[in-house]
Every structure is written in structure tokens, then in C-alpha cells.
Amino acid sequence: MLPNNFTSSDDLSLVNKTKYSDEEYLIRVKLAASYRMVAHLGWDELIYNHLTARIPGTEYMLLNAFGMRFDEVTASSLVAIDMNGKIVDPGCTDLGINKTGYVIHGAIHRARPDILSTMHVHQDDSVAVACYKDGLLPISQNSFIIGDVSYHNYEGISINAEEQQRIIESLGPVNKNLILRNHGIVSCGNCIEEAFFNLYQFVKACEIQVKMLAMVGGDISKLDMPPKEIRDFSTRTAASFTAQGNGKKEWKSYYRIIEKLDDSFKN
Q1: Predicted TM-score of the model (pTM)
Q2: What's the rounded Cα separation, in Å, for the pair 193 and 201?
Q3: What is Dmax (Cα atoms) for the chain?
């Protein structure tokens, strides 16, 4: 049997040889593994985009060093910054961070303490939907699963701290999925597993929508959109589908793939 095969996503049978506490090391391993998952799925873009996680019990968040590909990220390479964007632990490199990671993700972490993890990608179909005036259409089960989606208008490459308040207002106090117009998508979660699960469903919903619109020549009237009460039922059902919590079994299933391919992300 493979190690860690069908145990809880919190039980990864890790050996902590780092300077970090076991609690922080677990978060670092989960986040580094998630970077590898996104790379394996082909959703990464050179050295850009970010997946983040708050270090439990602190006002610090982890993100990738600016210069590493997603498939190169390890637990110890992750950079810790405070909610003002100041580096408090550079990790094992001197690469620093991409400021856009702080502007977008720092804003969400600071305003939404219920969110432990955020994930942002420029996957092709998600960018296409972000450029579509009608945004994400409620046409697939994947779109129902993630529930309501927020929108933030494009303000150029996100390097200005002044944009943070507008990002927070766009996301709102409850939603966990955000379309950055003309840019990409952001998924959030109360744990890394939920954020990854939301991202997976979000990307799938965008992929399906792009294919469906091509199939009907852009004629939305030809699409079958279930009534809102049915869509809402699907959202509620998905949120409570497993006793472990939203996305935990799904994340662990992909963790087994990544671990089998290359477990250097644990370093």
C-alpha cells in the first residue's frame, strides 16, 4: 500500500527536518504540494501567479519565491510575509516576492480571517471567461458547486496598494471565488484543501463554458440553465458532501499523485 494512501489530509506521515514547528511545516508541505498540483494540471504560467496560506495563529502568509516555477516550489522555499507585505522569512532563497502577490492575496487575507488559503491562476479558459462580459454562466454542475462568484474590474497589473480595498469590496464578506476581469481567477478556502477544490471546480466550469459557447456559436439562448433553486441546492449539497470537510478527500487524492511522481516538495 502506498504511504499516506487513504488517511486524512492532515495525516501525511511527515518527518519534519526543518526549523519550523510541526504545525507550520504541515501548512508549508500542503501549500508546496498544491503548487506542484497546479503545475501538473498545466495551470501555471512560467514564474507568475500565486497560491498562499496563512500560518495558523499568526498574521503571516506564505507564498512562492519570485523566480521559481510552480513545479520547483518546496516547503522551505516558501516566503513568509506580514499583512503589510514585509518579508519576515525569505525561505531558502534570496529571490524575494512578486509584489502583485501581496496586493491581491494580502488584501484578502487581511480582510477575511475566515480564509486561510487563496489561489490565483491565468489558466486559458478562465482568462477567456474573465474577458467575457457575462462572466461565468450557471450552466454546468461545476459552476453550481462553487456557488456565487464575485467580480473585480481590471485596473492594470496589480502593483498599487490602493487597489487592495477595491479587491476586498469586490470579493465581499462571504464569497470564495473571484473573477479578475481581463486577468484571471482567484479561489479561496478556509483551508488549503478547500481553496484547491474551489479552484479545480472553477477552472472546470470555465473550460466547459468556453466549449459550450463554441458549440452554440455564442448563442446563450441555446444553453440549458437550471432554475436557481436547483443550482442553490447543488451548492449546499457540495459544501457538505463529506464529513471531513469541503475538498479534503479530493485534495488528498491528488496529493497521492504528486507524492508518487516527486516528493521533493516536502524539503
Answers
A1: 0.92
A2: 12
A3: 58
Instruction: Classify residue 211 as exposed, middle or buried by CB count within 10 Å of its CB (0-12, 13-18, 19+).
Output: exposed
User: For residue 46, which phi and psi values (nearest 5 degrees)?
Assistant: 50, -115
Percent of the chain with pLDDT over 90: 78
Which residues lie below 8 Å from residue 156, measured CB to CB, with a gap of 6+? Answer: none
| pLDDT single digits (tens) 231-267 | 988 888 887 776 667 889 999 999 999 999 999 999 9
- What pLDDT shows up at residue 243? 62
Half-sphere CA count of 134, side-chain side, radius 13 A: 10
Residue written as grid cell 525569505: 90
* Residue 240: predicted pLDDT: 76
Number of Cβ within a 10 Å radius of residue 108: 22
pLDDT > 80? residue 10: no
Cβ contact 194:246 at 8 Å: yes
Length of the chain, in residues: 267
Backbone angles phi, psi at 250, to 5 degrees: -65, -45
DSSP single-letter state for residue 160? -
Among 72, 75, 57, 71, CA closest to 16: 75
Question: In this predicted model, what pLDDT tens digit does every residue of 135-192 receive, in sequence order?
Answer: 999 999 999 999 999 999 999 988 888 899 999 999 999 999 999 999 999 999 999 9
Angle among Cα 162, 166, 171 to the nearest 5 degrees reads: 140
The CA distances from residue 261 to 25, 44, 73, 171, 255, in Å, are 21, 18, 14, 36, 10
Asked if residue 112 has pLDDT above 50, the reply is yes
Within 13 Å of residue 81, how many CA atoms lie on the same side as its CB? Answer: 23
Q: Grid coordinates standing for 265?
A: 516538495
CB 18 within 8 A of CB 239: no
The label of the residue with cell 519576515 reads 88
